[in-house]
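Let us practice reading a record.
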Amino acid sequence: MVQANDHAEKLYGKPKPRFEPQISIESRPVDNVRKKGHLYLVYRDENGKKWALSGRHENYHKTGISSNWFHSNIIAEILPQEESIDRLNNDTPEDRYSAVIIKGDKALTTWEEMAKTVTKINKAKIDYDMEGSNSNSVISLALSQGGFDPLKVIPERKDMWEDFTGNFPGVGDLVIDENGNVREKTSLNYEKSQKKLRKSDPNGLVGIPTL
C-alpha cells in the first residue's frame, strides 16, 4: 500500500483520488404537488462524499415536509446530501433521473462557480413563488454560472405534467445583473406587479382616467 501511494505521488504529485470528482443533476417530485418537479445538483468529491446544492423556501422543514411558503424567501444551500432536503432516503440516483453533467478536474472549479450563486441568492432575499422564482430557479442560475445551458441538461420527466411552466416551474426566473447581483427577470417582475394590481383592484379601475 505504501509503495502504491509513493508511486501515485510520483505520477500525480499526491495520492491518486479514489473517486473522480463529478457533478450530477437530479430531480424528484414536489412533496405536495406530485406532478411538479424539484431540481438539485450533486457534487461527488474525490473521497466519494456527495454534496447537494438545493433551493427551498425558508419555512421548509428538513424533514421533507413542506409548510406554508407564502411570505417566505428563497433559500439556497450546500449540505452533505444525506443531511439535505434532497437526501435519497429509499431512492437510488436512478430513481431521481440522475445524470452526470461534468467530471474530472473541471468538476471542482465548476462547482466552486456554482457555489458562488448560493451567497448571492440568499443576499438578494427574493420572494419564493411556487410557479415563479423557486428552488428550480436556484438550480438553473447555478447551471448558467457553471457554463451550462439549463434547458440542455435538465432531465425530461415523462411522469410529470408539462404545462406552460414545464416539468420544472421557475427555471430561468433568476438572473445576475450587470452589478453581479441576483434579481428576478424583468418580465417576471411585471407579471407579479400585475397580480398585485388585480388583487388590490379586482374591478380593474386603477389607472382608468376619470372625468
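A brief commentary: The radius of gyration is 20 Å.
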